[in-house]
Structures are given as structure tokens and as C-alpha cells.
Amino acid sequence: MGKLSRRKFLGHAGCAAMTSTTMLSTLLNLKALNAAALSNSTVADGEDYKAIVCISLGGGNDGYNMLVPTSSPEYNHYAQVRSNLAVGKENLLNLSVRNTPGRTFALHPSMTNIQKLFNDGKASFVSNVGTLVEPVTVNEFWRQAKRVPLGLMSHSDQQQQWMTAIPHERASIGWGGRIADMINQMNDNPELSMNISLGGTNIFQTGLESVEYTINPYDGITEIFGYNNDWEFNRIKKEAIDELLNRTYADIYENTYANISRRARDGWLTYKDALDPIQLSTDFISTSPNPEYHGFTMSMEWVAKMIAARQSLGYKRQTFFVSFDGWDHHDEVIIAQSEMLAELDYAINQFQLAMQELGTENCVVSFMISDFARTLRSNGNGTDHAWGSHMLTVGGPVKGSRIYGAYPETLLPHQNEMDLGGGIIVPTTSADLYFAEIAHWFGVSKSDLETIFPNLINFYDYRIDPGNPLNLLTIS
Q1: Which residue ranges form the domains of the chain, and what is each CATH number?
Q2: Is 65 exposed, middle or buried (0-12, 13-18, 19+ CB in 10 A)?
Q3: Per residue in 282-296, pLDDT tens?
């Protein structure tokens, strides 16, 4: 994208190092003050419990075919730019949007359940949102007048930045993990991780001290084979395993490995006892539209089961990470996205039905992240990597039937002032604003948001703004 001078490189590196050091030391100090950090948190549905569910669409979802403008002449501009990838207007699902006077929008035809959730006031979108260090225009981008995220349009870099909220460096601590470091002791059993992953090890839930507990969506809680079996050989094996795991080792690596393995064993025993009795009336699998993508739907079912067991496990706050990969549609985008959006739509709807069944609909917020958008311009049969996109948020606390942020007024490249070229749109809403709203609802006080999101001050100053970053969620 251009040359970087040695002085500018050292300046950026120095700022990054200072940011990291300050943030990490502050988090350690705040850990002892987690009750104060939760002072703004209210009881939802008569129960002091809240959960956030991060749904990661790995690969980069084509957001501009998910949420489509339908007013005139906006749809005509959309169809002109997208050419052979445009969804026919007659097939789109109309939305009743409350906050876009004079403009109308619709959803991809595979998203019938999301359409109903949106129109019923239980879902909203954040439009043209993306990773940003500070606000930037197209002109400022090309002149290198503003800082921009590292590795733009790189899968690994952008996935990392959505999970860390630190786009100016390649960090290894996620914002979900930073929150867990701060407030994990609010739960009755601090030995159980606040962070539950259905997508394996991930940066989002990695903290200084916090790690995720991983559940396999197909096999469930991972167990030690034969550990609880009464057969004599297994009893001997159990004694040997316990002796190895409960020992303190002089070598730091051996001791760390033993501690992690011991936590995994203890977690398995605790979660198994709590989850085995759970029976949900909501059916997740038998009517799933695409068995090829059952893994995602089963993941959402496991999240629902874990929430159902919250009281027996002593949880008051939980984060969940669910991965749904395969959205890198350089080819066959029309067919592939149609099938995958149908499964996404179904699984989210069933999850919301389960939340109603459990009486926790107002205690849980589900939110979408994805690497980046896709180019507006077709590459022939698909789309390539871009930047700003549209993200879905669902749940009782969501101020629904709204599109937050600034959806471009036209998608024509010569009229859209945020088009970098080739249909790559510069985001006008920072991911920090999106995440800060969720974190604030979850219980992080406004004064601590900047510790979790070090660049938030570039977009929102809680000291002079009495409102919430986006006003996306109901926070009291």
C-alpha cells in the first residue's frame, strides 16, 4: 500500500508497545476491582446472569448480498455494480427498518427467520463496520495520513483483529479474554472458565489468565476414556492419572502442562454432571436445512445447553465462541452463500427459541463477526477480499428493527466516497464501537472500556458523551 519510513515504523512500534504494557498492567489492577467493574450491570429477567455469544463467520461473508438496499435508485446501483452476483429484487425479504427514513432494505432470500426476528424487534444490523485504528477517508488512506490496520484483507490478520480489537499490532490477547480476566471471579466457581468455545482454541477468549474451555460440537465434553469406569484396570489407570496431575513439578513447562490437564479433567467431570440431565424441547437438528453444516447448528445447541446448566454450575457471566467457517467464496458465491445463510438463519432462530424456553432471552446477546466483506465487483463467479461489512446482532437486549452505522447511500464506485477501488469499501463504523456496546451491556463500566479497547477513544469519549457508543443495546 506504500512505503513506511523508519521513523514512522519506530513510532508505530513504540506506541503499540506502550499500549500493550499499559493495558495489561491495568487489567491486573482491575481484577481485584471486578465488583466495581460490574456496578452498572443490571439483573435481566429477575436473574443475575448475562451471556454473549460470538458467532465467527470465518473466511469473510459477502455482507452486501446479505443486507441489500431496495429503495430507488439504490437497488439499481447495487444491481449495476454487482452485475451477475446481484440478488433479484423480487426474491429479497423486506425489512421494516425503524431508523432509515426514505430508505428501504431487505435480506437475502435464505434468511426468513432473521427477517422475522428483525421485524419483531429482536435483531438489528451494524452496517459498514470494520477494523479501524482511527477514522480514515479514502484520500487519507492513499496519502498515508492516518493509521490503518495491519494486514488489511489478510484472513489471519483480520480474524485476529476482530478478536483482539487491537488492529495496530499483532496481539495475542482477545477482548473476551480481557473481560474474563477482569470479572471471572464474579462467578460462584472461579475454577470454571467463564469462556466456553465451540470453535476450538481462539484468540477472542484468550486472556492473561483466562483460557477457554473447549467443547466439540459433535462429541460434546471431551472425556478421559475409561476414567469413571469401575473395571479394575480403569480404576488403576484413574489412580495413576490423578497422581500425575496432582503432583507439583519443578520444571515450569511440566507444571504448566499438568495444571492445564488437571483443569481439563476437573472441568470435564463438573460439566458432565451438570449437562447430562439437560433436555431441551427446542429441536435443533431434525429440521436443519443443510446437514453439511450441522456442526454450526450443533454448536448453538451446546451453547443453549450450557446456558440451561448455568445455575448448577454457578455462572453469572459467560462468553461463548462459535465458529462457522467456509465463507471465502472466490467462486460459486451465489450457491454457496445461499446454502450457508440458510443454516445460519435456522440455527440462530432455534437458539432464540431455546432462549425463550429457558426464560433467558433478555439475558443473552449473540453477535456476528467475520474477517471482512467481499468486493462489490464480481471476479467472474465470486468475490474477493474487501473491508467494511455488515454484522448481525440478536437478542432481547437488542434495540431491534434498526440498521446502525452508515450504509453507503450509493454503491456506484464513482459516487461512493468510501470506495477504495474494485468495490472495497472503507468502514465508517469502527468495530470498537460495536464491541464496546456489547461489553458495556455485559457489565464493563464505561470508564473501563478504554482498557479493554485501547483505540476506542478515537471514536467515542465516554467522558463527554452521556450516551452509549452505538445505542444498539438496552443498558440501564
Answers
A1: 12-41+51-220+280-458 (3.40.720)
A2: buried
A3: 999 888 999 899 999
